[in-house]
Fold this sequence. Notes:
The structure holds three protein chains of three kinds. By secondary structure, chain A is mostly helical. Chain A has helices spanning 10-16, 24-53, 57-65, 68-101, 107-115, 122-133, 139-145, 154-165, 167-180, 183-190, 195-224, 227-233, 243-252, 256-284. Chain A is built from 14 helices and no strands. In chain A, helix 6 (122-133) crosses helix 8 (154-165).
Amino acid sequence: MADPELYPADAHHEHASLAVTERPLARAGLMFVAFAFLAVFLLLPLVVVFEQAFSRGIGAFVEAINEHDTIAAIKLTLLVAVISVPLNLVFGVAAAWAIAKFEFKGKAFLTTLIDLPFSVSPVISGLVYVLLFGASSLLGPWLKMHGIVILFAVPGIVLATVFVTFPFVARELIPLMQEQGTGDEEAALSLGANGWQTFWHVTLPNIKWGLLYGVLLCNARAMGEFGAVSVVSGHIRGMTNTMPLHVEILYNEYNAVGAFAVASVLAGLALVTLVLKTLLELRYGAEIAATRGH
Amino acid sequence: MEVRVSNVRKEFDRFPALRDVSLDIRSGELIALLGPSGSGKTTLLRLIAGLERPTRGTIFFGDEDASNRTIQERNVGFVFQHYALFRHMTVADNIGFGLKVRPSAKRPTKAEIRRRASELLDLVQLSGLEKRYPAQLSGGQRQRVALARAMAIEPRVLLLDEPFGALDAQVRRELRRWLREIHDATGHTTIFVTHDQEEALELADRVVVMSQGRIEQIGTADEVYDTPNSPFVYGFIGESSSLPVKVEDGQVWISDRPIGLAAPDLPDGEATLYFRPHDIELLDECNGCIAGTVAASRRVAGTRRVELEIGGGRERVEIELPVGHPAAQKSRVAFRPKRWKVFPKMAE
Amino acid sequence: MTSAPAKAGWRFRQPSVIPGFGLTLGFSLAYLTLIILIPLSGLVWRSASLGWTDFWAIATDRRTVKALEISFGTAFIAAAVNVVFGTIVAWVLVRYRFPGRRVIDAMVDLPFALPTAVAGIALTTLYSPKGWMGSLLAPLGIKVAYTPLGIVIALIFIGLPFVVRTVQPIIEEIDKEVEEAAATLGANRFQTIFLVLFPGLAPAVITGFALAFARGVGEYGSVIFIAGNLPYISEIAPLLIVIRLEEYDYAAATAIATIMLALSFLMLLVINLIQSRTRKRYG
C-alpha cells in the first residue's frame, strides 16, 4: 500500500472540490424530489397512525388500549417475543461461533441457508407449519392422540415467529466475528482460560454491541410479524391474537380508533427501535457489522 | 504552454494550505513539486488543474487568465495518484473518454477515437491491451493507461499527482525513466508532485521545494542539492549535519574557538552550521577546525558513518569517511566542511 | 468429538485450538434443521406428492395465474419506482449536508421497523377517497385504495429501504478521484453521472431492485388492507394461499406456495449470476 503520510492533505479535499458536485439548482431539485418522496411514502403514513389514534381525544385512546382483548394481545405479543428472541439469540451466537471461528467445508452453503427465511414470503413461513402439524399431516393424528396443540395456539405462533426472525442475530454476528478473527481467543486460551471463560470474558465483550443490534432488529420483527402469525394463529380473540392481528380485527370491525390506538403502540415501538438503532450505529458503528439495515 | 502562478493563496476552512505562492513554468518544462506531506504541493497542483479555486491570486495559462475557467475548459491532463481509471470501461474506452464527451462539433468519429486510443497505447507500450478492464492490469500498466488517457485530450499542461506513489520500488524506477522519455518525445509542459527527492532530482528539469504552504527554493537538481538556500532544504534534500554555532567578527565559532570558516556577510549572534556529511576534509592538526571524540561508527553501504561528540558531548554530528580510512580507528577526529552554509538563528 | 479424522488431502475442517466447534455447529445444524429445513422440505414433499396433473391444474387455474401476475407485476413496478427514487434519496443522503440529515437517514428504515399491518391500515386510510392523499387524487380521477395501484403504493413503502441501503454504501465508496478525472477530461456533470458513476452503481442498484422485488412478491400484511382483494383484479398470491388454506384446500395452497418459491429462487439465481459476472470483470 501507499505511504499513509501522503494523505493528510486529502482531509481538506473532502468538501471543497469543484468537480464533484452538482450546480445549486440541480442540488435543490434532487433534494426536493427526495424529501417529497420520503414525506409522502414514509412520514405521512406514520403521522396518520397517530392522528387517527387520537382523533377522538386521549380518553378514547386510553379506553381502546385498556380493553380486555387488547391487553391480552399485548401480553401475548410480549410472551412470543420473550420466547423467540432468546432462542434466536442463542442460535445466532452458536452459529456465528462455528462459522466465524472455524474453517470447514460447506460453510458458505450453511451461511446461505441461514438467510433463507428472508427470501420466503411470511405467508409461506406460516403455511409450512400448518402443513407439518395440521390435521391432514403425518404428525397431525399423533399430536391429536397425545393432546398436543401446536396450531392455532401459542406454540404455533412462537414457531412461526422464530422462523421469520431466524436470521437476524446470526447475520449480524457472523461478519462481525469474522472480521475480529481468532487472535483474542487464542491469546485467552494460551493464558489458561477455558472455553467458557474465553467466551464470557473475551468474545462476548467484543461482540456485545453487534449482538444488541441484532437483538433489537429481531425483537422489532418478532413483535410486528403479521403474515406468518396470521396463518397459524386461528384469530381467537383474547387467546391467540397478537397485537398486529388485533389491529386487523379491530380495523375490519370498523373500529378505527381502536385499530389505530393499538397500531400507534406498535408504531411507537418502531420509533424507539429506530432511535436505539441509530444511537447504536452512531456510537458503536465500528463494532457493529457492516450489514446494516436489514 | 507556459503556466504562471501569481501570488496564490488557498485556505481550507480558514486553514492556509498555500500562502502567497508564485511560480513561473516555461513551456515544455518538466517540473517537480517536492515537499513533505502537508507542504501544499498537491493543493498547488489541484489549483492549476482547476479542481480547486484559489482564495486569492491568479493562474495564467500563457497570457490567458485561467482562474475563471472551469476544469472542463482548462484542458489539462491530470493523472491521479490512484489512477482513477473507470473500472467498468475497457482500456480503449478509458483512453477515448475525453474525446467521446466532447461537444458533437469537436468530437472525432468513433473510428478516429479508436485509432487515437491504440496510437496512445503504442506510445505507452501497452499495444494490444485495448479490450482489457483496469482490474486485469498491473499497477504499472494502470499508471500507463492513466497517462495515455490524460494525453488523449491533447492537454495544454500535464499534471501528475504522486505518479509513482502506489508502485513498488522496481517498477517505480523503470517508469521514471520511461516518463522522462515520453516527456522528451511529446514536449508537454509537465508538472508532477512527489515526496520522493530521488524521483524529483532525477526526473525534473527544475525542482520546486515546498514546505508549510510556501515555496522554499526553485532550481535545477544541482542547485537545490549543492546550494540549498534554507535550513529546511538542507534538511529535506540529501543528508545533512548541523551544529549550533556563533558568528562573531565575520568568523564562525564553536564555543570559544573559531573553526576556520569565514562568514563575513552574517550578523553576529547565534546561528546554525549546515554541511553534507561527506563534503568534508580531515585535518591532522587543528588550528581552526571542528574536533570531536568518536562516539559511534557504522558501516553504511560503501562508506563509514562516524558520529562525533563535539564540545564535551553536548552536540553530536555525523561525518562520512571512506571505508578503511585510518581516521575511523582514531578516538579523536578533526575536520572542516568543504561546502557549508550558516543560517542565523530565527527570531522565534 | 470436535475434529473429524484427518485423512490425507481432505479434511472437514482446518485444525484450530479454539474449542466448541462440535457443540456450536451441532446445535446450529439441529436448530436450523428443526425450524427451517424440515418445515420447508415438508412443503416441497407435499407439493411433490400432489402429482403432476393436479399440480398443473392448480398452477394454470385462472385465479392462480392472475394472482401470481398481480403479485409479480406490482412488485416489479414498485421495485422499479424504488430504484429511481431510492437512488436519488441515497445520493442526497450521502452527498449533501443539511440539517436533520441523520433523522431522515434513520427514517428510511421505518418500513423495516414498522409492523406491516400498521403500515397497511395507515396507507389505506391515507389513500382512501376521504384520506389526505386520496382526496387530493380523487378529483384527478386517480383511485388508489382498493385497486392494484394501492398494492404498488404499499410495496413502494415496503421496498424503499432495500434499495437505499444497498446503494448508499456504494455511493459512499465512490472514489472522488474518478469524478475529478472525468471532469479534467472534459466531461460535464451530466456526462460524469451517466457515463461514469451510474455504470459503477449498477450492480448495487440491481441488488437493491432484486431485494425489493423479492420482498414485494411475498408481502402480505401491508397489502391486504389497501388492495381490496378482488379476485382477478387485486388479489395477491400470498392472499390466495391464505384463502385456500381457510377453505382447507391444502393442495392448492401448497402448489401456489411452491410456484412462488421456485420463481423467487430463479430470480435470485439470475441476479446472483449477473452480479458475479460484473464482479469478475470490474474487480
